[in-house]
Write a structure and sequence with these properties.
Blueprint lengths: L2 H12 L1 E8 L5 E5 L23 H7 L1 H22 L4 E6 L4 E4 L2 H4 L13 H5 L9 H10 L8 E7 L4 E11 L6 E10 L1 H45 L5 H33 L5 E2 L2 H11 L1 H7 L2 E3 L8 E2 L1 H18 L5 E8 L5 E6 L7 H6 L18 H11 L3 E5 L9 E6 L5
Parallel strand pairs: 9-11
Antiparallel strand pairs: 1-2, 3-4, 3-7, 5-6, 6-7, 8-10, 11-12, 12-14, 13-14
Length: 433
């Protein structure tokens, strides 16, 4: 037997279906071996049995050196591919026509489904969905469709949130036809975790939506006071020479108030930007001092409205970032003063919840808010005027962004009963937790 003849005889015995290929994203491809184990080619009887043509088996073995060499090449390629596929984060497997696992990579262990050594022969659907009782399970349906004999052997793609895996997944199934190309004998299944991609897409969509509302709100909130400043400045200029000092002084005061309002809006924009990007250290809060500073900033509003504000003597210990929490109190208290009853009555408080977190609140005596109105609050850049009341659109957006950045929650409670008002609250981690 010549070397070329031995090599030519090997290919049929390998039974490698070169039409069935696992294609990787890098463009490499791996033939799927559908025949019995290749190691059969390397086994030879040690006894020197005489063949029909008079040659001993030892002589045949010498001629079969190319077969053993080819076997070693294929085995080396197989090990290399296994090492490559095993390090991929995607769940990659080969299943037979019954949906049973022929091969699977080690992502089965990182996904905490089972050990790679024990899953061969198990049904893929049962491995991924061990407690599935859905009549139309997406995975069972996709596998069934891919393995159903048909003229269409294109890949099947499906993307969804999988509650069993607790992650968004993208499933790709490529049928692998038999050597005759007439029927599907196996399929390659790739399940990819796309949860991070989905989160990034959602954050991008939220950001785009916020930017549009942000531009509208800022333009509106800055344009009104600027228009008033320009008007009063024009009046001041024309009246300075002929008007009494009292009227001129009133114009100057109006310009000052509008300037302060503009400055507050700009400060809020800066805080909003910081709350998105900045990383701050959570420390125990001196809530008494923070509330005092907030009330001091609102001194003019408080004096003008003659509001009665009740502040507790003691506060539960909470974690946060003092400058941001001061801004939260300023927003909550100013809204309670402006939109409370007549005369306004505002109560501040704080308590430790059953879960150990600290809940702080501001309660007013206004008309309250309906459930529909409450659902629209804290939406980024939604103006309170859009829920049939008053206010401007940065305050509650800032409150929500700040508190969520500090690992807390915000909310509002109201029975929509006149005089009972609303309770706006925020929740922070406890300092001793």
């Amino acid at each position: 037997m010549t070397t070329s003849k031995a090599a030519a005889d090997v290919a049929p015995r390998l039974s490698i279906d070169t039409r069935s290929v696992l294609q990787s994203e890098s463009g490499w491809s791996l033939p799927i071996v559908l025949a019995p184990d290749l190691s059969d080619l390397a086994r030879k009887d040690s006894s020197p049995t005489m063949s029909d043509d008079g040659q001993t088996q030892a002589e045949d073995a010498a001629a079969d050196v190319p077969a053993r060499a080819l076997f070693q090449i294929v085995e080396q390629a197989k090990r290399e591919w296994e090492s490559i596929i095993d390090v991929l984060p995607d769940l990659i497997c080969l299943i037979d026509r019954q949906g049973q696992l022929i091969r699977i990579n080690r992502a089965v262990e990182t996904w905490r489904l089972d050990r790679v050594e024990t899953v061969k022969g198990r049904v893929l659907h049962d491995l991924v969905h061990p407690a599935c009782n859905l009549p139309r399970c997406y995975l069972a349906f996709c596998i069934q469709q891919a393995l159903t004999p048909s003229a269409d052997s294109a890949s099947l793609e499906y993307e969804t949130f999988d509650p069993s895996l607790a992650r968004h997944v993208h499933v790709s199934i490529r049928p692998a036809p038999d050597r005759a190309g007439l029927a599907t004998s196996a399929a390659v299944v790739v399940i990819r975790d796309v949860s991070e991609l989905k989160r990034a897409e959602q954050q991008r969509e939220d950001l785009i939506a916020e930017l549009g509302a942000f531009a509208h709100t800022v333009a509106h909130d800055l344009k009104n006071p600027l228009g008033l400043i320009i008007s009063y400045a024009d009046l001041l200029e024309s009246e300075l020479s002929k008007d009494p000092a009292g009227m001129t002084l009133e114009f100057a005061r109006m310009i000052s108030r509008m300037s302060y309002k503009l400055n507050n809006i700009i400060d809020e924009l800066m805080i909003l930007s910081q709350a998105r990007e900045a990383e701050v250290l959570l420390t125990p809060l001196n809530m008494t001092e923070i509330v005092r500073q907030a009330c001091q900033r609102l001194e003019a509003v408080i004096e003008k409205s003659r509001v009665e504000i009740h502040v507790p003597e003691q506060w539960p210990a909470a974690l946060g970032y003092a400058p941001w929490i001061e801004e939260v109190w300023v927003n909550y208290i100013s809204n309670a003063v402006k939109y409370g009853g007549q005369p306004p009555h505002v109560e501040l408080g704080g308590a430790v919840q059953p879960d150990g977190q600290v809940r702080c609140w501001v309660r007013d005596n206004g008309p309250g808010l309906s459930p529909e109105m409450q659902a629209k609050l804290f939406v980024p850049f939604t103006r309170l005027a859009q829920v049939h009341t008053r206010g401007h659109g940065l305050g509650l957006s800032i409150v929500r962004r700040i508190i969520e950045k500090l690992n807390g929650q915000v909310g509002v409670e109201s029975r929509h009963v006149p005089g009972e008002g609303c309770t706006f609250y925020f929740v922070l981690p406890a300092a001793n937790g």
